């Protein structure tokens, strides 16, 4: 590489009669280094993204701890809820079934999360904790029931003894049904107590118990994310401090993790979901493990002592922040501590004695006003002393500009946080107009984490127009990698039948996954990262919308490749000739890999009926005397990759 100088020239040949436009990239001096974790994903438990989504548990309210304990369940016969001598201290409710010898039996049906998805010939691992107070053996019949009320899978469990024990059975679905349910029936006369009634697909991600839905994790894996932010934004705050996300409740034995009400259940009155809770089955241990699986740096976020300021004025007095700050210190120990430390031992006992190598932590989410920096300061004083190796992420509030934003940025500079979390939920036009947002940012101040962004079309659909606008904006993020170190789209998941907010990157129902055009933009960027920024210009200026074109260029020293990303946000075809200059010799008939995302219809969306309407198309062209040509169609995003010696 050191003996090669390269000038990469874009020549945009417009239609007949129009002037030629020249884009130049110079490799004589490598630009700023790009962080390997720059582009990643942000997970929040919204839109039934955890329970009912990424977390593969099929049964809703499995421990009867919802405020109304039979939510999700239809009891029949003599079935009551009790908490006397419970199986689990932090989940004390269980059901008592009494069968008097009638033919109908006593039992329960569970509806799942907008019903249950079963696949023909697939297995399902069913389990519960049970006891028989009268000590006799009792038989339960377990059934998978289709949407037409036909039984499509069955098994039985024999329960015996007055002490709580775990019982399980494997079931096999005889048909495919996206809207099934579960039924269990006590067939023997007598009394039986049941708790933590659970069912997972036999095939989960990496086939782990208490596992994740395989197809959803595969979609994440194929993004090649560099960072994974979790467990959310606003759920960190909670509608009240009582309902904030508490990471210590989400680790340890899954059966004894206490229930939490999800802050998105009542937030949007037009999308009202009173059955939306968090079992914490998908908890911080699972998030760290998923980060490791994805090859992404974990970025956990914790509460700073403030409830959601949109919903509440509740806050912890500055002098009373000790337990909240200790949660942050203990979290670092949970992730990185030795197996003989208090929280490192918890991690080891869960099956991961090696540290997770946590490098950064977020304090707070979208707070504003003086309440936030005065609390953040207290966290930083402790963390800088105890863990100076950990980067601290502060917040610039819920909007990308305005008085609150300016105030918080100044405070973050004074506090000397490592990164400032900026959020952008704006129109596609805003994203196009702000592709140069970071060109003039202070290079000596804190770095930027573009922590939540999505182009909000008027319809809020995940259409091509919004995806192309995001691609244009991301060329600006990449060009300014010396300022922007991290970037994650938000939100990540949405259940087709139970969403509160859109747009979202990945939509799903109980059996299927829909990857949006926005997903493919993120994938194209994530799979084509660089190690260094290359300066790309048109007539001495950055390419930020001239003639509706946007571009960035990077060098990847690891793969010996020059990668150019180009966006054509117009509806017209642009002929682009890329001329390579500055080489010792020439590149003749070299292969240039082209990935294109395009649609003639800017309103086009992917759907369950047509999930592949808008997908990347792969092709290649060959160089001719150090140049190659592509025809960039309207509403398109291109990644061009050329290997060099």
Automatic annotation (TrEMBL):
EC class? hydrolase
Q: Record's superkingdom?
A: Bacteria
What are the entry keywords?
A: Glycoprotein, Hydrolase, Signal
* A Pfam family annotated for this UniProt entry: ASD1_dom
A biological-process GO annotation: L-arabinose metabolic process
What EC numbers are recorded for this enzyme?
3.2.1.55
* InterPro entries listed in its UniProt record: Alpha-L-AF_C, ASD1_cat, CenC_carb-bd, Galactose-bd-like_sf, GH, Glyco_hydro_b, Glycosyl_Hydrolase_51
Q: Where is the Alpha-L-arabinofuranosidase C-terminal domain?
A: 451-636
Q: Which SMART domains match?
A: Alpha-L-AF_C
**GO MF annotation list:** alpha-L-arabinofuranosidase activity
Q: Could you tell me what reaction this enzyme catalyses?
A: Hydrolysis of terminal non-reducing alpha-L-arabinofuranoside residues in alpha-L-arabinosides
Family to which the UniProt record says this protein belongs: Belongs to the glycosyl hydrolase 51 family.
Q: What is this protein called?
A: non-reducing end alpha-L-arabinofuranosidase
Which species?
Marinilabilia salmonicolor
């Amino acid at each position: 590489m050191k003996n090669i100088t390269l000038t990469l020239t874009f020549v945009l040949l417009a239609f007949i009669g129009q002037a030629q436009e020249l884009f130049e990239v110079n490799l004589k001096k490598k630009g700023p280094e790009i962080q390997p974790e720059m582009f990643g994903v942000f997970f929040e438990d919204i839109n039934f993204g955890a329970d009912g989504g990424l977390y593969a548990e099929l049964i809703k309210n499995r421990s009867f701890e919802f405020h109304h304990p039979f939510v999700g369940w239809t009891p029949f016969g003599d079935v009551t809820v009790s908490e006397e001598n419970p199986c689990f201290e932090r989940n004390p409710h269980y059901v008592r079934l009494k069968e008097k010898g009638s033919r109908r039996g006593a039992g329960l049906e569970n509806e799942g999360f907008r019903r249950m998805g079963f696949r023909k010939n697939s297995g399902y691992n069913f389990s519960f904790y049970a006891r028989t107070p009268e000590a006799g053996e009792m038989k339960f019949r377990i059934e998978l029931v289709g949407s037409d009320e036909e039984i499509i899978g069955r098994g039985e469990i024999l329960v015996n003894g007055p002490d709580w024990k775990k019982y399980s059975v494997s079931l096999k679905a005889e048909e495919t049904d996206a809207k099934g349910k579960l039924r269990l029936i006590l067939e023997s006369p007598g009394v039986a107590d049941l708790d933590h009634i659970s069912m997972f697909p036999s095939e989960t991600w990496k086939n782990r118990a208490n596992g994740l839905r395989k197809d959803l994790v595969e979609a994440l894996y194929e993004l090649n994310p560099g960072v994974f932010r979790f467990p959310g934004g606003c759920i960190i705050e909670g509608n009240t401090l009582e309902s904030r996300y508490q990471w210590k409740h989400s680790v340890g034995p899954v059966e004894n993790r206490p229930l939490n009400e999800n802050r998105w259940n009542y937030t949007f009155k037009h999308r009202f979901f009173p059955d939306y809770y968090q079992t914490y089955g998908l908890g911080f241990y699972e998030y760290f493990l998923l980060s490791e699986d994805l090859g992404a740096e974990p970025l956990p976020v914790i509460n700073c002592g403030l409830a959601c300021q949109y919903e509440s004025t509740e806050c912890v007095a500055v002098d009373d922040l000790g337990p909240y700050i200790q949660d942050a210190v203990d979290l670092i120990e949970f992730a990185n501590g030795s197996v003989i430390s208090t929280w490192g031992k918890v991690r080891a006992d869960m099956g991961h004695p090696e540290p997770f190598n946590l490098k950064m932590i977020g304090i707070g989410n979208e707070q504003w006003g003086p309440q936030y920096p005065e609390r953040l300061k207290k966290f930083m004083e402790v963390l800088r002393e105890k863990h100076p190796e950990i980067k601290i992420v502060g917040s610039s509030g819920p909007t990308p500009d305005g008085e609150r934003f300016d105030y918080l940025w100044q405070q973050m500079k004074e506090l000397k946080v490592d990164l400032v979390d900026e959020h952008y939920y704006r129109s596609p036009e805003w994203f196009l107009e702000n592709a140069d947002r970071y060109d003039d940012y202070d290079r000596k101040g804190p770095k930027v984490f573009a922590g939540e962004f999505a182009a909000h079309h008027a319809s809020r659909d995940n259409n091509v127009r919004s995806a192309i606008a995001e691609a244009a904006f991301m060329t600006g993020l990449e060009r300014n990698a010396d300022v922007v170190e991290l970037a994650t789209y938000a939100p990540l998941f949405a259940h087709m039948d139970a969403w509160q907010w859109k747009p979202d990157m990945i939509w799903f129902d109980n059996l299927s996954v829909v990857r949006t055009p926005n997903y493919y933009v993120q994938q194209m960027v994530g799979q084509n990262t660089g190690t260094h920024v290359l300066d790309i210009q048109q007539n001495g200026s950055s390419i930020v919308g001239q003639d509706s074109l946007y571009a960035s260029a990077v060098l990847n020293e690891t793969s010996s490749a020059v990668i150019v990303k180009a966006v054509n946000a117009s509806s017209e075809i642009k002929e682009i000739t890329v001329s390579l200059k500055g080489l010792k010799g020439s590149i003749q008939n070299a292969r240039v890999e082209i990935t294109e995302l395009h649609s003639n219809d800017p309103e086009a969306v992917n759907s369950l009926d047509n999930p592949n309407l808008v997908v990347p198309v792969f092709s290649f062209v060959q160089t001719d005397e150090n140049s190659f040509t592509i025809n960039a169609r309207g509403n398109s995003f291109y990644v061009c990759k050329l290997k060099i010696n």
